[in-house]
Amino acid sequence: MPYFLPEDYERRRRRAEAEMAARGLDALIVSDPANMHWLTGYDGWSFYVHQAVVLSGGGALWWGRGIDAAGAERTVVPGTRIEGYADHQVQNPELHPMTDLAGHLRELGLRGARIGVELDTYYYTAAAHACLASTLPDATLLDATGLINWLRLVKDPAEITLMRRAGRIVEAMHARILEVAEPGLPKHHLVAEIQRAGTRGTSEAWGDYPAIVPMTPSGLDATAPHLTWDDRPIEVGEATFFEIAGVHRRYHAPQSRTIWFGSPPDHFRRAEAAVLAGLEAGFAVARPGNRAEDIAAAFNATLRGHGFEKDNRCGYAIGLAYPPDWGERTVSFRAGDKTVLEPGMAFHFMPALWLEDGGLEISEPLLITERGAERLTTTPQSLFVKT
What we know:
- By secondary structure, the chain is an alpha/beta fold.
- Helix content is 33%, strand content 23%.
- It has helices at residues 6-22, 33-40, 69-75, 98-107, 126-135, 147-151, 157-180, 187-200, 266-285, 292-305, and strands at residues 27-30, 52-55, 60-65, 81-85, 114-117, 140-143, 238-248, 251-261, 315-322, 325-332, 346-349, 353-355, 358-360, 364-369, 372-375, 384-386.
- The strands form 4 sheets. It has a 6-stranded mixed sheet with strand order 4-3-2-1-5-6.
- A hairpin with a 2-residue loop joins strand 12 (353-355) and strand 13.
- Helix 7 (157-180) packs antiparallel against helix 8.
- The relative contact order is 0.12.
- The mean pLDDT is 96.
């Protein structure tokens, strides 16, 4: 059964239908699994095949692989129509599953409708779009990328509860890292401890799987942001950063910390001071009424004052997520993003620095409240040092 109440899903669906009406859409095909979950509660590792939730007024249709229909029955909100396609259409270059979805759309009276599709997602392919267009030649397919994502931006109290629980989980994960990390320990052994802690969760909440695997590069590998791990042992005289997330019921609280094994050089200490001052400056303006770009401006001005530059965004919206990304793909902390901050928005404030000889990541999951920014964790803010 879905976690939220039926009336929560009804309210979400009505908000989506109001936005569809404002855009002149008769129907919406939602293929992003996070958006499918948000609308219906559906939760399964089936996003490697074609699936969708269709909204066309008067309820939701879950459509996917036939063997996953049982998972839909177990997880979607009651009243959701469930339709599965035959297994011979799975990864078959001669018979695309979208031909089946087109048949259901025709049954719904949408043969010549204006239909929104999430054109720029990881899950809706060029082949899927081409097949849908050719099998519904009288329909008009319009780009509705982000329609649901933006509706998810302000979290309700029940969602915030899940994110706070995820924050407790990532605290426990970082505590376990500090406990067991030491020179000579093979990196994959350390990652096993991180994943174990993330899955065990806390006494309050079990741990779900993250949308991104642990990022744990060391030394020169840590000059790049998105390398994972191997079997090499941790060495003295280098930094290792850990970009990880606590997750509960698909809601994420990402957080990064960095450990230096040995005695940190002066430029790493200066970078630490710059990042911490930038975090403080950003938190000071992270309050309702200000804009996303204000946080970036405060952070970057402070960073420049300490002699450092960062040429990429320093934060993004977070919440409900599936692989391969725990970001919501809406708001970014960067110049030009004029999204007005509201209570209930949640972000990963990510002021990382990748230096010539390593990386420094000290990041925070934050929630916008009526009073300002709330940290979702109590993990100490510092460069951790172990000898």
